[in-house]
Amino acid sequence: MTFEQVKDILTTAGGLPAVPITPEASLPDAGVDSMALVVLSLQLEDRLGLEISEDDLAAAACVRELAELVDRRAEARA
Amino acid sequence: MRQVLNPSAGPGAGAAAVLTGLGTWLPPHRVTNGDLCDRLDTSDEWIRERIGIVERRRADPAVSTGDMAVEAASRAMASAGVAHVDAVLLATTTPDHRCPATAPWVAHRLGLGPVAAFDVTAGCSGFLHAGAVAAGLLAAGTARRVLVVGAETMSAVIDPDDRATAPIFGDGAGAAVLEAGPRRLDGALGPVVWGSDGSLADAIVVPAGGTRERHRRPVSPGDVYVRMRGNEVFRHAVRRMTRAARDAAAAAGWELSEVDRLIAHQANHRINAAVADALGIPRGDAPSNIHEVGNTAAASLPLLLADAADRGDLKPGHKVLLVAFGSGLAWAATTLVWPSGLSPRR
């Protein structure tokens, strides 16, 4: 999953403002709160069949790492 | 006093529950986000953008859930143009007392005489649960006309220092009159889809005051307040409300694309956006009043119905899908076609 795809989920499904969401922004700086991570987690399950808890997602240091985490989990499943 | 107890005695047998009156009451005192932020480590901007709440109402300490229920109920009866009902069902998680139930006192204050009256405890989905019970009473012919009230004094169980709950909940009451009538009539409730998951009883809980925690004396002061695991509740709310709403539409024989309005429990605007998205219902077709009243638990749906009807957002003939979710966990959903000639009293 690319950074842009994560950003798209966070802004459309999650309703977050787009501007602060940059690849290197930390989750708090990007405006990504715990509820946004729940929305992302639900979307990943619906779109990709991936179950990644919001706690696991919260461990990402920045938005780019969120996308990398999704890729790692998808590969591990494959 | 007419008490129809024999199904064969009245034409109610097999009847639908038809919505004929709607009334609400909100305490006049408004609490803004700014008022709360003086005490909590949060901001107006965060509460407004992330939860969707701008202000909520707070009942005076001298006003109880029963008091607010009486106000909403009398308005609902005026809205329906009726002076009597056969039963009063009060959905609340914040009753006047642990014992007795609050509904009999409400019935007494309404001057209804010795009618059946009891409380229904099903958290934020209590209004739909009570509506489902009322529909059963009407279908069986046990009653011909039922008053269903949702009333809450959430401020009584909120820790003012807990930023996870203090900004969210508000006080208020809403009530509906349901009467036995033909299923094809506009305003008739469709099949109710409901459920519960007690394995998550502690996801939204007031720990003290019941029998479970009585071995722990004294209780810690915070145990008298509601505690909520917000993220877990968010996840289950989206999943359960989506499924229940989809199933209720199907049970009514509706395609989701036919739904004109989604009336969802007002807990958090992001939950409802996620539910609307999952159902494929435009977010703009899901009216909201959370910005003005917050999460009023069991009072949420009747307050929203009255608000949307008054704003012209619910029009006669609209196919309305109702869904709620809350502590228990418990959830429920049903349908109705919005009737003509229904004027909520507020």
From TrEMBL, chain A:
Q: Which PROSITE patterns does its entry note?
A: CARRIER
Source superkingdom:
Bacteria
Q: Does the keyword Glycosyltransferase apply?
A: no
Keyword match Acyltransferase: no
Q: Which InterPro entries match?
A: ACP-like_sf, PKS_PP-bd, PP-bd_ACP
> What is this protein identified as?
Carrier domain-containing protein
Ranges of residues in domain Carrier: 1-74
Q: Which SMART domains match?
A: PKS_PP
Keyword list (alphabetical) reads: Phosphopantetheine, Phosphoprotein
Output the Gene Ontology terms for molecular function.
Answer: phosphopantetheine binding
Annotated membrane-spanning segments are none
Q: Name one GO biological process term.
A: antibiotic biosynthetic process
Q: Which organism is it from?
A: Streptomyces minutiscleroticus
Automatic annotation (TrEMBL), chain B:
Q: Which Gene3D superfamilies match?
A: 3.40.47.10
Q: What is its main location?
A: cytoplasm
Q: What is its EC number?
A: 2.3.1.180
InterPro entries reported for this sequence: ACP_syn_III_C, ACP_syn_III_N, FabH, Thiolase-like
Residues forming the Beta-ketoacyl-[acyl-carrier-protein] synthase III C-terminal domain are: 250-338
So where's the catalytic machinery, residue-wise? 124, 265, 295
Pfam families, alphabetically?
Answer: ACP_syn_III, ACP_syn_III_C
List where the protein spans the membrane.
320-338
Q: Which reaction does it catalyse?
A: malonyl-[ACP] + acetyl-CoA + H(+) = 3-oxobutanoyl-[ACP] + CO2 + CoA
Task: Give the residue range of the signal peptide.
Answer: none
- Top-level class of the enzyme under EC nomenclature: transferase
Q: Which GO terms describe its molecular function?
A: 3-oxoacyl-[acyl-carrier-protein] synthase activity; beta-ketoacyl-acyl-carrier-protein synthase III activity
A GO BP annotation:
secondary metabolite biosynthetic process
Location in the cell reads:
Cytoplasm
Q: Which PANTHER family match?
A: 3-OXOACYL-[ACYL-CARRIER-PROTEIN] SYNTHASE 3, BETA-KETOACYL-[ACYL-CARRIER-PROTEIN] SYNTHASE III
The record ties this protein, via NCBIfam families, to: fabH (TIGR00747), PRK09352.1 (NF006829)
Its UniProt domain note says:
The last Arg residue of the ACP-binding site is essential for the weak association between ACP/AcpP and FabH.
Please describe the quaternary structure of this protein. Homodimer.
By sequence similarity, the record places it as follows: Belongs to the thiolase-like superfamily. FabH family.
Name the chain's protein. Beta-ketoacyl-[acyl-carrier-protein] synthase III
Please name the source species.
Streptomyces minutiscleroticus
Gene giving rise to this polypeptide = fabH3
